[in-house]
Structure formats: structure tokens, C-alpha cells
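Example record for the data management plan.
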Amino acid sequence: MRLNPPKPASIPRWTAFGRHYIRDIVYAANDGIVTTFAVGAGVRGAELSAGVVLVLGFANLAADGLSMAVGNYLGIKSERATLLGEAYQDWPETVDAARHGGAQAWLGGAYDPETKLYIFGTGNPTPAYTSGRGEGDNLFTGSLIAVNVDTGKMAWYFQTAPHDMHDWDSAQTPVIADAMFKGRMRKLVMTAARNGYFFVLDRVTGEHLLTSKYGSATNWVKAIDEQGRPMRNPEKDASIGGALVSPSAGGTVNWEPPAFNPKTGLFYVSENNLYSVFYLTDPDPRGSMGLGGHEESRVGTGGSFLTALDYRTGKARWRHKYEGGAGGGGGMLTTAGGLVFAGDGGGNIVAHDAATGTPLWHSRIGGVTNPPQTYLIDGRQHLLVAAGDTLYAFVMY
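Corresponding structural encoding:
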């Protein structure tokens, strides 16, 4: 059943915040279209406001991940069978790896009401660190996938992490925008993956437009292939003697949503450059399913930053270093008034100048645990931030 959602109430256009002005337009990761919520143990969901469609994905590593990622997002049985057939050809025939091979979609995606495409990322393959899944790309793990919500059919996919070997899933929330790219207006989708690479695609066709390394210490890639995919250096896989790798298993970014500001042309994301040594403790794939068969020792860091990427080049326009440790833990919020809100490594919520990264305001509330949100009540702009189990609301006079 398709329901007609209520029309949003009209709200004032401008609200003052100190010397800066914040418009009612908020450029968040999902642009206000997708709200994620937990449906049950091991299940993730997203409510799409256009037509009220319920989309379910699964986060359980022990479950039939590949089938669920394809089957639940692509509900047409014939389509599911075709896609699973394509995926199975990329996995070893002698091991039942593809059926339980990961690709859980455990974060909400982004919905484009114009094209009716729901775009989401999938998780890492399993076993995550050991052999047993061949040397193929392990479709459709570590991928960005576009699905038509009316038909349930896949429109396109792009693998941002082929044959991942470090638990760097690609489930991060993508950002959609209409913007100029190489002299023409394009309908874009952008994602900063956990593996330290940034990607820009045409969201209608899936055409690859840009790949760049945003993790300044990222060291696991041997080459970028002709499709724009980072191809791993096998010497950086977990080994008995140990392999020094950046980022750590936690990733250059993890689940935290990024944000994009079309006025500055900048994509804001947290960047964590930890180094780890990955040891292989069980070379037998039969005893190392899931995340087993390895040990990880963190040995140093190349720094933690709030990073602003130019979407046209993939290069960092600026980086703001977090001196107190890993920052950006809750995700990003940017506004048309030229601000970026993010948590730092010292327990503060900070407002930065979106163009330069300069800190303008802060409040010490503890570690920020969710992306900040902003809204208007009686014509006044509010900022809502979560820290642990507490919500803090700031009003802007």
C-alpha cells in the first residue's frame, strides 16, 4: 500500500545565529529524506518519506548475509535469483561462502524521489580476514547499490571495496546532490568509505566519476583499476608475521554520517588514521568464519581530523586536527549559513566555519554520539545534540 505523506509545514527562511545566519535548509547526510531506526535484533531499517516505503536490511554476521542484502532490498524473486547467480560466479564453488558471505546492509541509505532510486551500501565479506572465499571480487559485498523502490530491481552497483580483507564494509550513508562536475550539471552520489577512499558516481547510471584517497595514512592499496576501484595489496592482508596497515579495522570513518554543502562544494567527513598490525592466527577457513582467525594490535596514529573534501577533485580543501583524540564520532551537520557542526576528541560539540574549518563556538557536553540536528520553533533555530544517553538542545539568539 502506498500512502500520501503529510505536506511539511512552512517555516521562516532565515534565523540568526550570532554573526552567522542559518537557513532552514539543512545539508545533512540524507538531506532530511531518510531516517534510520532499529527494527529488531540484528535488523536495520529506513523509512522513506516519499510514498512511505519500508526498507529492511540485516546486520547479523552469522545470518545469510548476501542473500538478505539482495533479497530484502530487491524483493522480486526473479531479480534476486539473477543477481545471486551473478554473485555466486564470483565466489569459490567448493565453499558455501557466498550464501553466508556477508554484505549486510546495516545503515540507512539515501532516497532520490525524482529517480525513485534508493541508494545504500553493503557490508564486508566473511570470513573477514582469512581465506575461504577465493580471490574474486566477492559480489555484492563492499558495494554501493541503487534499487528502484517501485520495482525492487537493481539499477546499478559499484564496488568500493572489492575483496575486502580488513572488515572495512561500505555501508556508510551516501550523499546525493545535483552539482556541476567537469563542466556539466550531474546528478551525483558521493560516499567516503571505511577503507579511506572517496567516490563520486552518477546516481542515475552508476557511472564512475572520481576515486580519491582521503585517508592521509591509508596504505593498503596496490592500484586503482580501470573501473576506479581500489585494489588491495595482498602483502597488507593479515599474516602470521603481521602486516602494518592503516586504517585500523575501525576504518578511516565508521558509521558516522558525513555531510555535503553545495554552497562551499565541500564534503565533510571524519578522518581517523590509526595504524594496526594484523596477525593471522588461523589459516584454516573452516575454523575462522565471521571476524575470527586474526588478532589486531594498534600501534600508532597518523592523526584524527575533520576533513573537508572538494567533491570535484577528491582533494582535501582543509583539515582540522583533533588534538584530544578521535573526533567526529557522532557524524556531521552542515548548514546554508556556512557552518559545520561536529564533536571533537575532547567532549565538545563545535561549530566550524564551513569554508575554512576555523572553530567558532563550542560547548563541552561529553562525547557526541549522534549527528547533530537543527530545527525551528517559533522562528528560533535550535541545535539538538546527543552525548551518551543525554540530549542537549541549544537555542540560537
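Summary line stored alongside the record: The radius of gyration is 21 Å.
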